[in-house]
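C-alpha cells please, single chain.
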Amino acid sequence: MADATSSILTALLSSSNIKNIGKESGASTADVKKVLTSAIPSLLQGASAQASGSSTAAGFLQALTAHAADSSGKIDLSDGAKILSHLLGSKTASTTNAVAKESGVDKAKVSSILAAAAPLLLSVLGQQTNASSSNSNAVAALLGSVVSSNMGGLLSGLLGGGSSAQSGATVKPGNSNGKQDLAGAAVSLLGSLLK
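Here you go.
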C-alpha cells in the first residue's frame, strides 16, 4: 500500500494544487504548506472513517466518484466546507483551531485553505482509488491501509531522507486508536516535503 500512499500524497501536494489552493483561499503558498502539513493526517483519517462507516460508506463512494472527474483548477469553497464537515464531523472547529495554533496561520485563513483543499482531496482519492470501479469495502480497505501505513517512512523515502519540520501532531479527529505516533510522523515529514 506504500504505492497508493505515495500516489495520493504526491498528487495532493503537487505544486499546481498548492498554488490553486492558495489562489482560491487568498493564502500564501507558505501558509498553504503549513496548514496542509498539520491537517493532512486528520483529513485522511476522516476520509478513512467515512469510507468504513456503515451509514457513510455509500455516500462517500458516490462523492469520490463525482469528484474523481474534477480538474485541479476547479475548487468550490462552499462544497469544500461541506466536505470538511463530513470528514471531520463535530471535530471541525477543534481541528481548525489546532491547525491554526500549530501552523501559526489565522483561523479564518485555515478554514479557507481547508475548504479549498477538501474537494482536491476527494478528487485525488477518487482518482487513486478508482472509486467508480470499486465498492465501498475496497475503498475503505485502501484508505485504512493508507492511514495505518508507514506514511512517515514513505515520505522520508520520497524526500531522500527528511528533516523534522514539526515535533508532532496535535490534530487528530475522533478516536485515534494508537495512530497519534503515525500522525506525528506524517506531520513531521510532510513539513519537510512542503518546504
